[in-house]
């Protein structure tokens, strides 16, 4: 049976019509179902609007202006989303023939005002448009970003018509969707669309949609092994049900988190042709005051004693956006969002300790080598990971881009021996052994509060020639993960400091240096 939406005032008309049968004196009232005012038309498509305000960055917001003639921009599209099941949260998706866009609305009752199915004419001038975590959406401008708009702010922009809506579902395959992620045009075309994918199965069939009371990403796979993520909120009314077995079709809204597509189910009726969905039991979903299992933090975050996932999540939650903590963590692969073996060689996936889940964002394989195949890690593998814990946007604990796997199921890659003499160690009193220092009388190896550092001072004897501290040759041929980091400080800075204080690299035997760009110059305070 297809779902229908009944506008509340229509029930009054129906009641009056029934009463009319009892008396010929009743006057039948006019229909009160909302429709567009006469002359309502779109003057821009959703795809055109998105392209007009598209920027190649994951987070920004800007206010939509007027057309050249001063008129407001108006889009017309069908509501394709529903928040009723609790899986889509405070979001309104609108779609026309060219594309779709999300409007963030600061109420979970948005689907009561704008249910799935009717058409909306939206005066978008004055609304904010931008991207949040990579996905394009509209709302209100807060600072330099797009945020959810309140219903009182949104209503003056919207007209609704219960007769003009058309739920067009685009049938598409996973390779086509994944290829679209590689271009702005592809993301504009597919982002927010109501799509149908046939011939897929759940790689974690039989497990709960949302594990242990946590929002969980699950993996859909087609017969050729292509994958896409299906997002399941812990607040969904199907969160504790079990992912169905068998092969079928999935209908949902295609959104993206940064560079990864994910499907948002309106409800479980979007799963077609699978085996019957089973009830998994357990606690009621969506009650943050009574978590299924808060977990016990364990470990010290070191190579010898890694954090468990619960401890890593707790540490990351205490960080402000932009802060990071280097740590080791251990957990089992719960789901895999993407393994990009063909391009960048990194992967995005989730690890769990059975109580909490942590995302590893664009991490590398063993010892920091690039992923070369899609099966280097699998759901259920136990990993030890080294990287920077962050709290992205202040609300998403994760391993930041660039982490590396130390071991898979207890097996690690052989580490290449590194001659520590090429590095300046803050814990060593040996000085810069092996380094070439030009103007040696200006360079000194000093300590402060038990930490050692290489110091240069020209305060009383300014130099007219460049002074260098050059490391010994470092053999990187056998290493898969190449990075460089350093700490620096400066006092009594004068003009040209940033131009003179540089860091560069060159291959063995080369004469010219390649100057590396970096940010975070020290302040000029004495």
Structure, described:
The protein has eight helices and 29 strands. The N terminus is likely disordered. It has four domains: 123 residues, OB fold (Dihydrolipoamide Acetyltransferase, E2P); 102 residues, Beta Barrel (OB fold (Dihydrolipoamide Acetyltransferase, E2P)); 102 residues, Beta Barrel (OB fold (Dihydrolipoamide Acetyltransferase, E2P)), CATH 2.40.50.140; 106 residues, no CATH class. With 526 residues, it is mostly beta strands. Helices cover 10% and strands 30% of the residues. The longest helix is centred in the first third of the chain and has 13 residues. The strands form six sheets. Strands 1, 2, 3, 4, 5, 6, 7, 8 and 9 form a nine-stranded mixed β-sheet that branches. Strands 17, 18, 19, 20, 21, 22 and 23 form a seven-stranded mixed β-sheet that branches.
The proportion of residues in beta strands is 25-35%
Mean pLDDT: 82
Tertiary shape: globular
CATH class of the largest domain: Mainly Beta
CATH topology of the largest domain: OB fold (Dihydrolipoamide Acetyltransferase, E2P)
| Main sheet: strands, sense, barrel | 9 strands, mixed
What is the total tally of β strands? Answer: 29
Q: From the alpha-carbon coordinates, what is the Rg to the nearest angstrom?
A: 29 Å
Helix content: 10-25%
Q: Ends: how far apart?
A: 75 Å
Q: Compute the number of helices.
A: 8
Oligomer class: single chain
Q: What class do helices, strands and sheet pairing give?
A: mainly beta
Please give the CATH architecture of the largest domain.
Beta Barrel
Our count of domains comes out at 4
Low-confidence stretches: 1-26, 282-293, 416-421
């Amino acid at each position: 049976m297809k779902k229908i939406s009944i506008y509340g005032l229509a029930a009054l008309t129906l009641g009056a019509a029934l009463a009319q049968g009892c008396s010929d004196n009743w006057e039948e009232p006019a229909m009160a179902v909302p429709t567009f005012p006469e002359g309502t038309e779109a003057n821009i498509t959703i795809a055109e609007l998105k392209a007009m305000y598209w920027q190649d960055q994951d987070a920004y917001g800007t206010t939509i202006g007027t057309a050249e003639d001063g008129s407001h921009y108006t889009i017309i599209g069908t509501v394709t989303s529903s928040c009723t099941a609790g899986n889509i949260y405070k979001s309104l998706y609108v779609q026309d023939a060219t594309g779709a866009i999300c409007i963030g609305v600061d109420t979970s009752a948005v689907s009561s005002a704008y249910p799935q199915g009717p058409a909306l004419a939206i005066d978008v001038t004055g609304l904010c448009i931008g991207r949040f975590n990579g996905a394009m959406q509209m709302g209100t401008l807060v600072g330099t970003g797009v945020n959810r708009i309140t219903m009182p702010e949104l209503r003056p922009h919207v007209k609704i018509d219960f007769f003009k809506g058309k739920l067009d579902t685009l049938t598409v395959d996973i390779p086509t969707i994944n290829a679209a992620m590689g271009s702005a045009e592809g993301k504009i075309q597919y982002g927010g669309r109501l799509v149908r994918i046939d011939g897929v199965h759940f790689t974690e069939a039989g497990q709960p949609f949302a594990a242990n009371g946590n929002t969980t990403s699950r993996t859909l796979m087609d017969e050729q092994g292509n994958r896409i993520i299906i997002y399941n909120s812990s607040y969904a009314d199907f969160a504790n049900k079990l992912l169905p077995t068998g092969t079928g079709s999935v209908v949902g809204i295609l959104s993206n988190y940064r560079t990864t597509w994910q499907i948002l189910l309106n409800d479980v009726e979007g799963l077609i042709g699978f085996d019957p969905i089973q009830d998994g039991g357990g606690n009621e979903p969506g009650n943050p005051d009574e978590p299924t299992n808060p977990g016990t933090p364990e470990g010290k975050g070191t190579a010898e004693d890694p954090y468990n996932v619960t401890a890593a999540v707790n540490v990351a939650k205490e960080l402000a956006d932009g802060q990071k903590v280097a740590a080791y963590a251990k957990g089992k692969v719960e789901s895999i969002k993407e393994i990009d073996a063909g391009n960048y060689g990194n992967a995005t996936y989730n690890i769990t300790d059975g109580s909490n889940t942590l995302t590893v964002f664009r991490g590398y394989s063993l010892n920091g080598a690039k992923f070369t195949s899609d099966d280097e890690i699998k759901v259920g593998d136990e990993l030890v990971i080294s990287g920077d814990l962050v709290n992205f946007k202040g609300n998403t604990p994760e391993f930041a881009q660039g982490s590396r796997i130390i071991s898979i199921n207890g097996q690690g890659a052989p580490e290449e021996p590194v001659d520590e003499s090429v590095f300046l160690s803050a814990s060593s009193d040996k000085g810069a052994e092996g380094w070439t220092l030009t103007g040696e009388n200006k360079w000194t190896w000093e300590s402060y509060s038990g930490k050692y550092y290489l110091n240069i001072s020209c305060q009383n004897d300014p130099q007219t020639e460049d002074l260098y501290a050059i490391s010994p040759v470092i053999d990187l041929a056998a290493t898969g993960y190449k990075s460089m980091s350093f700490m620096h400080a400066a006092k009594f800075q004068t003009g040209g400091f940033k131009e003179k204080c540089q860091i560069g690299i060159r291959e063995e035997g080369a004469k010219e240096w390649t100057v590396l760009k970096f940010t975070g110059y020290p302040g000029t305070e004495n």
